[in-house]
Amino acid sequence: MAVFLAIAFGAAWPLFLAPRLMGEPDSQAFQMTAALTWSLAMWAPGAAAIAVTYWRGRRPLESLRLNVLGPSWLPYIAAWFLPPALIFAAFALAIVSGMETPDYTFSAILQEGGPDLPEDMSPAVWVTGGVILAILVAPFFNMLFAMGEELGWRGYLLRQWAGRGPLWAIAATGAVWGLWHAPAIMLGLNYPGHPVVGIPLMILFCTLFGAVLSWLYVATRSPWAPALAHGAINASAGLPLLFLPEPDMLLSGTIASLLGCAVVGLFLLWLVGAGWLQRAWAAYLIEESGGEIQDFDAGDTPPEERE
Question: Fewest CB within a 10 Å sphere: which of 37, 38, 243, 307?
Answer without folding.
Answer: 307
